Amino acid sequence: MPNRLTRDDLTRARLRLLQMHFEAGVGHIGGNLSALDLLMTIHHELMQEGDAFVLSKGHSAGALYITLWALGRLAEDDLKTFHRDDTLLAAHPPPAGLADVLFATGSLGHGLPLSCGLALSRRLRGEAGRVWCLMSDGEWNEGSNWEALIFARQQGLGNLTVIVDLNGLQGFGTTAEVADLRPLATKLRDFGWDVEEVDGHDVAAVVAAARRDSAGPRAILASTTKGRGVSFMEGKVEWHYLPLTPELYEQAVREVRAAADTPSATAG
Ligand SMILES: [Mg+2]
Fold it and tell me: What is d(CA 27, CA 193) in angstroms, rounded to the nearest whole number?
């Protein structure tokens, strides 16, 4: 079992994520910061030996690599290769080379169907272990997800948990502006799924929701903030894509450090 997650762990991960993206000069930082607490919670608190994980929102690969680094499965030298030529740590999860990455993702709407297949194959083989899938909210635009909802319910995939990074934004606007699916919880329940709604930056709440008994497939709708922890990024659609300038990087680091030094600040 991994060690329990602390507030210091989350701060260290957030700072290292900012550094890695700044040094590589790449964007997708906003969605990485909304997903980071969830990825850390899934891997440090929830996953057991033999479980499988699929990052459906592949553009948050950076947050996954930082999570694996925090677990000791990637080294500091690995992170320095992020987004460089010949790296294993590409901007989206690679098709091979990392034991913790089962599928290349990034083209959206595929992680949930793949996770359904993994969950069903485990059951058919009599294998223990849960399948965890982290999705974005924008990728619910993809019709493949709705087919997967039907399939998972029909197959009674009680060994599948989907967590949705519900930050309310996607590449070209708010999720409500692009294709309004609110209330998503109602729609998923109508498909026969067990649905929990939590604050995605509250580690204890996510853990409690994931551990509640559920007979069928479970979805945890985790409300998050795009750009979480950095004032000029929070809730701003442009930080889906923008890279950091040196000045903004320094400001972001100052803010994350200051929040960590504030006793009343919440974890993450
Ligand atoms: Mg989103």
Answer: 34
In angstroms, what is the span from residue 164 Cα to ligand 1's centroid? 9
Question: What does the buried/exposed string (b/e) look like for 220-230 if buried means 16 or more CB atoms within 10 Å of the residue's CB?
Answer: bbbbbbbbbbb
Segments of the chain scoring below 50 in pLDDT: 1-2, 267-268
Q: In a 3-state reduction of DSSP, which class is residue 131?
A: strand
How far away, in angstroms, is 174 Cα from ligand 1 center? 8
Q: Give the Å distance between the CA of 163 and the centre of ligand 1.
A: 12
CATH code linked to domain 7-260: 3.40.50.970
Q: What is the pLDDT of residue 3?
A: 55
Task: Give buried/exposed letters for 178-213 (b at 16+ CB in 10 A, else e).
Answer: eeeeeebbeebeeeebbbbbbbbbbbebbbebbeee
36, 66 Cβ separation under 8 angstroms: yes
Neighbours of ion ligand 1 (CB under 5 A): 136-138, 167, 169-170
Specify the pLDDT at position 268. Answer: 45
Residues 6+ apart with CB under 8 A from 258: none
> How far, in Å, is the centroid of ligand 1 from the Cα of 120?
27
Cα of 126 to ligand 1 centre, how many Å?
A: 35
Domain boundaries, the chain: 7-260
| Ligand 1 center to 128 CA (angstroms) | 31
| Mean of the per-residue pLDDT values of the chain | 94
Terminal alpha carbon distance of the chain? 21
What are 44-55's pLDDT values in tens digits? 999 999 999 999
Q: How far apart are CA 253 and CA 26, in angstroms?
A: 16
Report which DSSP code applies to 192. T
